[in-house]
Amino acid sequence: MNIEIEELAKEFGTTRALHPVSLSIPSGALVALLGPSGSGKTTLLRILGGLEFPTSGRVLFGGQDATGLSVQKRRAGFVFQSYALFRHMTVFENIAYGLRARPRKERPTEAEIGRRVNRLLDLIQLPDIGARYPNQLSGGQRQRVALARALAIEPRMLLLDEPFGALDAKVRKELRQGLREIHDRTGLSTVFVTHDQEEAMELADLVVVMSMGRIEQVGKPAEIRANPATDFVRTFTAA
Amino acid sequence: MSDIALSRPVPVTTEPPFARYALIGLAVVFVALFLFAPLVTVFAEALAEGWRGVVAALSLPDAQAAIRMTLTIAAIAVPLNAVFGLAAAWAIAKFDFRGKAFLITLIDLPFSVSPVVAGLMLVLLFGANSLLGAWLIANDMRIVFAFPGILLATLFVTFPFVARELIPVMIEQGRAEEEAALTLGASGWRTFFTVTLPNIRWALLYGVLLCNARAMGEFGAVAVVSGKIRGQTATMPTMVEMFYNEYLSVAAFTLAAVLAMLALLTLLLKSLLEWRHADLLAATRRH
Q1: pTM for the whole structure
Q2: What is the C-alpha to C-alpha distance for residues B254 and B55, in angstroms, rounded to an integer?
């Protein structure tokens, strides 16, 4: 599903987190929002997910206006920075949460929930951890469980906030590959936020460089490297 | 690694033995003198005339009325303050709004105001000499020197316990898990009952137990508001005082012992719950 962002702005009190920005995300693309902290990238992601609402501007999902759509109705799979797994539930229950939260008519049967959760555990290559609690998992495992939980609701898009932020370099490399594979297999439009230019360049089809609440440049990694549009992009991507 | 484990254990303390024993001894003496001795005294004094005395004291109508009054007040005040405290903590920990600092100060007010002053405040507000009080009495609604007054005084004094216990826990846990539940399609209520509440249940339990202990033990505010009318508005703590002032020491200490046992019972309940859910507690704790 393609995502259109039209003249989106966000103010928190008197501070402007986002100047009017426009962006077009083609269906099935893997997009990186790249920028330093305070650049507005997380705000933009949270607006897409329905966790914040813009001061002005519009968001369109597949051509339909979704600006005022509630967070529950967006069906956006969201992976949080520190994963936000439900610590009092097992991995199985974490992944099943979104299915159980559905209204009775649309809720799958218990057997069907079990099948789906197990299929997702296979997809993240952790088939045997269903009975464990989040604090019994490594950082990398938690991240993959968070991804499975987001995928369980059959989302229309995937949104990830610094998905590799809290991990060491080796695990980071593996999980990058994992995200790429899952993206390619599901074909979901995916947007992830990162401050790591290497990560953005290596993983994304399309990189959106942001600074001070503005979009500095949008392009394929190679284009951005070859022709940085502004001084900021040049210095930031050279780092 | 194994050679480290095999090496002789190094003592963690460097103090000479006499200093260590002196410090431990001091702690034991302190605990015995200030915690155990009073508790033992209460039970010893209650049993000064044997079980007969205890039974006789407990069959006094005034004592029974006081026990009934205290249990009724706690049964109403504790659930109400659990709900109020939960609502206040939730608002403070999960939302940003104007006047938040003021609200936190307001929640602490009952801790900083002397209970006697709190009781007096209620008497001045609802007593016969105030406009509101006169109107209430004219319409046959008695607040002061009656059950509603005691309830209001207890609610006021015990308000901070649940909120105080919950606010730091809820702030530490942040909003991410709730937000995750919302993105997964859960409604606000479902998020509250399946994510927020399970995460704070232990803090909530401690808050409720503390609140309960204070609700049953409150003296100052209740003494002022209730007027201490025997058999009608006397609670256990105020009745203990009245018995004692009348040199009915067995009755006073028996009632005090019942109060102490109620407190010990709540502690036992807490330990029991902790012991039964020890594995779950360990699994869900972050650190």
Answers
A1: 0.81
A2: 9
Half-sphere exposure of A150 (CA within 13 A, CB side): 33
Q: Find the CB nearest B283 among A71, A78, A133.
A: A133
**Structure confidence by residue, pLDDT tens digits, B15-66:** 888 888 999 999 999 999 999 999 999 999 999 998 999 999 999 999 999 9
Q: Cα separation of A24 and A189, whole Å?
A: 12
Beta strands A206-211 and A189-194, pairing class: unpaired
Tell me what ipTM this predicted complex has. 0.92
Question: What are the tokens at B207?
Answer: 């808050």
Structural element, H or E, at residue B54: helix B50-58
Nearest CA in chain B to A85: B177
Instruction: List phi, psi (to 5°) of B41.
Output: -60, -45
CB A40 within 8 A of CB A17: yes
* Backbone φ and ψ of B142, nearest 5°: -95, 125
Is there a contact between B180 and A78 if contact means CB atoms under 8 Å apart? Answer: yes
Does the distance separating the beta carbons of A77 and B180 come in below 8 Å? no
- The answer to whether the CB atoms of A51 and B280 lie below 8 A apart is no
Query: Which chain B residues are Cβ-neighbours of A80 within 8 angstroms?
Result: 176, 179-180
Cα distance between residue B175 and residue B89, in whole Å: 13
